[in-house]
Amino acid sequence: MRRPVLHRPERVRMDRRRTRTPKPRRPRHQPRDAPYEMKRALVSRDGHHCRFCSIPLIRPEIRKELNRLYPDAARWTSPRASDQHRGLQVLWLQYDHVIVHSRGGKTSMDNIVVACAACNFGRDRYMLAEVGLRDPREHIRTPTWDGHTGWDGLERILPQNKRFCRGTASSLWAGGGSRACTE
Ligand SMILES: [Zn+2]
Questions:
Q1: Whole-angstrom Cα distance, residue 155 to residue 20?
Q2: Residue 168 has pLDDT above 60, yes or no
Q3: What pLDDT is recorded for position 11?
Q4: Rounded to the nearest whole angstrom, what is the distance from the C-alpha of residue 14 to the centroid of ligand 1?
């Protein structure tokens, strides 16, 4: 007796390249850190003050120069807080995303303000409304103290600015702003 020939169903080869459902493209995440040119523009716009609490600040470049000039007095030897001069921590100029970066905030002039470390780290990943803060972009603090309006962030100690400055280290700390160093 002849056995019936069983025809196997023909295997249909699936072309995965054609049948795969395309995944929606995720928007490219912006880098968190603002480029150097943007940081300069932010300081030029906001000045050397925290946009939240108004305390005077210095850029990290100034802190590095201070540390180079006075390594013992202006100590900043590692990322650990215990290796950093407390005063320099308070003066630390930072760039804060108003709409938090991890929650979709853009790295743009519109969304970043100059801030101190306490305001920046203190708010952490929370939105302004979640911690009861006003939007610093909506108001400008009007300083009335001369020491505030004259504060130049010690920019004059940078080597490229020093040609305008006569005097000693003590005069740098005496205040008076850049006018005191202009010939
Ligand atoms: Zn602040």
A1: 58
A2: no
A3: 59
A4: 60
